[in-house]
Amino acid sequence: MEAKGLKTSLEPGFPDPDGVIEIPPASHNFFNDEQPFGALYGAPLQAQAYADTFTDDFGGTIDYNVVAKYLIREDDNKGRVSAVVAQRQDGSYVKYVANKAVVLATGDFSKNPDMMAKYCPFAWEHFKDTLSTGEVDYDAELVYSGLMPGDGQKMGLWVGAAWQKCQPNPPMINGGAAGPSHGAISNFWGINMDIHGERYMNEVTNFAYGAMAVLQLPQKTAYSVWDKAYAYTEEQWEPFGTCVDLVNGIVPATPEEEIASWDKNVDDPSSGIGTGAAYYRADTIEELLAQMEGIDVEAAKATIERYNKYAEQGLDEEFHVNPECLHPISTPPFYGAKITGATFLTVCGGLRTDEHMRVCDADDNPIEGLYNTGIMTGDFYANSYNFVMPGQNLGAVCGTLSYLLGRDLAEL
Ligand SMILES: Cc1cc2nc3c(=O)[nH]c(=O)nc-3n(C[C@H](O)[C@H](O)[C@H](O)COP(=O)(O)OP(=O)(O)OC[C@H]3O[C@@H](n4cnc5c(N)ncnc54)[C@H](O)[C@@H]3O)c2cc1C
């Protein structure tokens, strides 16, 4: 990456006080002077660096703007996959004959409503109004409304590949109750409440599990409340996008800077990365709750009083939040947030895949000549992508397994 002008940034980990889903800073991203926000925009820079290495350094050729349509499998769909037929922008077709292998790497199927409804029905139910299913943009990058139409998965199925074993296909969803973040990927660890003013879980978890919980709530809506003193429960705050190496990036915030960021969220709702949350501030809890549209104010007040008792006694009698994370909500001004729904990023998996990245049939027999990699790799995750190891998806199925496959194919 350095040879292609990119710098590396280490991202914060997830500090779980119970140690269950603790992860040290390990995931990293790439950035340059023009685009210092590697955590959000680094992956395309990295992909371009790979492409440049392949063409400039190794003399490879990449044909852009051709859409693969179907595979050719010899012996009436029983033999080797030997070619792929694709369509150019002018409508003409081109057949690529494979010397060694065809590797499918066409991304996910979140742009395909039928495949979403069949293979990931619960996410489809939650997100069908936000996923746009119209024209496909094969150059989509950082969008939250669906990515690819599942072409590779369909091409595999048409030549006899089986679907992955684990169903439903796991979606990648994040969000959770909004509020100060502990590490890049946290749910808000202070009090989370539903519209009835009730707590609903041990809040100390990451933003994927937090999001899953929000999706189960009435009106898919969660509220958070904290106070000014909460800023001093950490020496420094590392929000999403913090660069630990500090070269050009966003630096960790002091408690005072953290409070300023909360004020900014209230005073300028267009600031921030756009979690879709509404933020509030008031001098009393009553005034704060009165602003938080939709919550049962009296019930929430009683819940906060109970929570303060738990903080005082160091024992959460409802969900056993680690005492280190129980802080009384008593120092004005008070802050609050409301979030509805969660953020859909992608859907993982597809074709049945073995440990050599070979695409397999229903009896787990590899289809000769056919491989796949990237997010479409079947059965790498189950249920829901959980972000417990930040960067695992881009690092593992997209980066490392693709590298290992390339290395193995080169040796064929
Ligand atoms: C907003 C957002 C945030 C994300 N954040 C994270 C994160 O923090 N961590 C993480 O690990 N992952 C994250 N992801 C997921 C991650 O970006 C994807 O899993 C990853 O990019 C998938 O890489 P891929 O190469 O398999 O597929 P893609 O990046 O989707 O690439 C597929 C390629 O195939 C091409 N293609 C598709 N169909 C055809 C066809 N028929 N013929 C020819 N070419 C075709 C497309 O043009 C595209 O270039 C995020 C995704 C989104 C949308």
Structural commentary:
This protein is of the alpha+beta class and 412 residues long. 27% of the residues lie in helices and 18% in strands. The chain has 2 domains: 63-171 and 344-411, FAD/NAD(P)-binding domain (3-Layer(bba) Sandwich); 176-341, Flavocytochrome C3, Chain A, domain 1 (Alpha-Beta Complex). The chain has helices at residues 38-57, 74-77, 113-119, 121-127, 151-158, 207-216, 255-267, 285-291, 297-313, 392-411, and strands at residues 7-10, 28-31, 66-73, 81-88, 93-97, 102-104, 171-174, 191-193, 221-227, 278-282, 334-340, 343-347, 358-360, 366-372. A hairpin with a 5-residue loop joins strand 13 (358-360) and strand 14 (366-372). Helix 3 crosses helix 4. Flavin-adenine dinucleotide is lined by residues 43, 67-68, 105-107, 138, 142-144, 147-148, 151, 172, 345-346, 374-375, 391, 393-394, 398.
Corresponding CATH superfamily of the largest domain: FAD/NAD(P)-binding domain
SSE pattern: EEHEHEEEHHHEEHEHEHHEEEEH
> Strand tally, please?
14
What is the CATH topology assignment of the largest domain? FAD/NAD(P)-binding domain
Bound molecules: flavin-adenine dinucleotide
Mean residue pLDDT? 93
- From the N-terminal CA to the C-terminal CA, the straight-line distance is 27 Å
The structural domain count equals 2
CATH architecture of the largest domain: 3-Layer(bba) Sandwich
Rg, nearest Å:
24 Å
Question: Can you count the helices?
Answer: 10
Flag low-confidence runs. 244-248
